[in-house]
Write a structure and sequence with these properties.
The structure holds 2 protein chains of 2 kinds. Chain A is mainly beta. Chain A contains no helices and 12 strands. Chain B is mainly β. Helices cover 0% and strands 46% of the residues of chain B. Chain B is globular. Classes of the chains: A mainly beta, B mainly beta.
């Protein structure tokens, strides 16, 4: 029986940290992509940025987030895709994020839906819903995830899955 | 022994022309949950919510609680006794550009519980939101109809894709 949800590539950050987690040469044989992420930043910033095909333009995000006390929303043009965990948070805490990109190899602008959370046992926490858009009709062949500042630290992981609709 | 397929595509459609309703019918009851993924190329008219009904039920059997934003303000809302359920977003409705919506129909095939549907709506140029919907029927879900305005006259643009997946718990 054919696999519908298939691992394409995985990445685990080593002891030196990593400026980004990159998936390259993504085959066009799937319908959608799903990335499951667990990362922590070395800096005091806590954003994860997603860029595709090496492009830093035509990116937009609309997010809704709660921090345990209030909810708020924002719009960004940096490629923001979700919340991470920064260096001020309790050790061993990493984020949890899923990014879903439908029709990544098609000829329409590329949308993504992402949910990310960071829980810190009663102190700062975030739950974020995010809509991400790359206003470009090119097929996605590479994806780069990076922190908005610093590096991803050791034990950060990301798994890229391909989803087939037939 | 290799495990059987857990996440199975049931049906998929890509619109070759504008269409008012996207439907999945004769849905098999052999899965545990359903996942619907909509990649909307555009809509004919802005300003309407992205709605759905199940089993062609047009009665006042739907309710929902939502969380949404418009890039400036976060808001939560409720509807009850509604004739439709929906995917989320702010109350200004879908804009005409690209959008992405997903729905998870939990335990859709049992004949003992009301049906819960978790949805997400994403439109980077407009809003993002999440909704928990309830269909007050114990019937198994056998069809899904997605549409825009309640008169079902607004259209989804050509190039819009919709895929229904089945998830098996064992």
């Amino acid at each position: 029986m054919a696999n519908t949800f298939e691992l394409i590539a995985s990445s685990t950050v080593g002891s030196g940290g990593a400026a980004s987690i990159d998936f390259t040469s993504i085959p066009s044989t799937y319908t959608d992509l799903c990335i499951k992420v667990s990362v922590r930043n070395s800096s005091t910033q806590d954003q994860v940025i997603m860029k595709v095909n090496g492009s830093a333009t035509s990116l937009s995000s609309r997010l809704l987030y709660g921090n345990g006390s209030s909810a708020a929303s924002a719009s960004l043009t940096t490629g923001y895709v979700g919340t991470s965990v920064n260096s001020s948070i309790t050790a061993s805490v990493f984020n949890n994020m899923e990014i879903y990109i439908p029709n990544y190899a098609g000829s329409s602008n590329k949308s993504a839906s992402s949910d990310s959370v960071m829980e810190n046992n009663g102190t700062l926490s975030y739950a974020v819903l995010n809509a991400w858009l790359w206003s470009n009709t090119a097929a996605i062949t590479s994806i780069s995830l990076s922190p908005d500042s610093g590096n991803f630290i050791q034990y950060s992981t990301a798994y890229l899955y391909g989803v087939k609709n037939a | 022994m290799a495990a059987g397929s857990t996440y199975t595509p049931i049906a998929t459609t890509t619109l070759g022309s504008a269409q008012t309703t996207i439907s999945f019918t004769s849905i098999s009851g052999s899965y545990t949950d359903l996942v619907l993924v909509l990649n909307i190329a555009g809509v004919s008219n802005a300003g309407e919510l992205l709605r759905f009904q199940v089993n062609s039920d047009t009665g006042s059997n739907y309710s929902a609680t939502s969380l949404a934003n418009d890039g400036n303000t976060a808001a939560s809302g409720r509807i009850s006794g509604s004739t439709w359920a929906y995917f989320g977003g702010d109350n200004q409705g879908v804009k005409t550009g690209t959008s992405l919506a997903t729905a998870q129909f939990m335990n859709y095939s049992n004949a003992t519980t009301y049906k819960t549907v978790l949805t997400r709506f994403n439109q980077a140029a407009d809003s993002v939101g999440s909704v928990v919907n309830l269909w007050r029927s114990t019937s198994a879900i056998t069809s899904i109809q997605v549409f825009l305005n309640t008169a079902k006259t607004y259209t989804f643009s050509s190039g819009t894709t919709a895929t229904l997946y089945g998830i098996q718990a064992a």
